[in-house]
Purine-binding protein
Amino acid sequence: MNKWVWLLILVVFFAMGSVALAFDPIPAEDLKIGFVFVGPVGDGGWSYMHDQGRQAIEKAFPGVTTMYAESVPEGPDCARVMEQFVRNGAQLVFATSFGYMDQVIEVAKKYPDVIFMHCSGYKMADNVGLYFGRMYQARYLSGLVAGSMTKSNIIGFPAAHPIPEVIRMINAFTLGARKANPDARVKVVWLYSWFDPGKEKEATKALIDAGADMIGMHADSGSTPQTAEESGVYVIGYNNDMSSYAPTKCLTSSVWDWSTIYVDIIKKVIEGNWKPIDDWWGMDTGIVKLTSFSQDVPEEVKTLVQEEQEKIINGTWDVFWGPIKDQNGNEKIAEGQKMSDQDILSFSWFVEGVEGEIPVSQ
């Protein structure tokens, strides 16, 4: 077979692929969207912020119909909920937790004419796209505050699950803390749950008893900042502005604004421009940010955060640029080098300054 025949085959193949990936425009008044939330929409954290994004869609696109299911466990229940959305007419489904990934792919195969968007995962298909934000950038900045203001040099960190997403956030936070204070240590306690206020409270208390005078967090409720407030210990919030739970002790929070990416995705669907791509937006888009600082944060710390933030936003530097060592002191990223997105998304090791282990199995 000569090269011209092969060329013709390739042209036909890619042409067919482009047809398979095309979705017709869906007028706003005809568009029905389903959201699957891993926690209650009133959790004050992850699911609450996603629901704020859902509501932003309704405001931005009058006529669009949205549906949601809350507190859906990761696993088979997620597939059942998504299929119910489709049977109720949904042409677009957002699955908002990492652990929904395999079920998204499974259900998407059954319904090739429905668009599925999975938050924080890595598996795609002709009708499955991915979306997330570079929260590690805001986490690094919040770490600068924590490292600057700890006196004991021990920062406690209740963390949901030992998956790359959470490991990435702990590492970014620690790099920020140690940029400001090379003696700072971040002690991690695993919760093995996204939303469990009781566990979060117990873990926070245990970390404070172990000497932490500063608390970070990667969990979905307000229990951690509330416990820090009750204990008289500073806390850095996550997901939402946690100052409502810790009015005198929350120094700042790394927060999500999902409306930015949700509105963009819906616009593409309505216009017929949607394609299964992996959107991983940075701080420059506004999807992740820091809340305003507590009055207890010194001006010099605010200035440090502003300087580092400007480097991130203008692209002259990012968090996972070398030199970076692992928690055993081994150089992982040399000076002048930077981690690829693939490596950042698959983090399986802790940076220097983290105290804790990554279990082999959950």
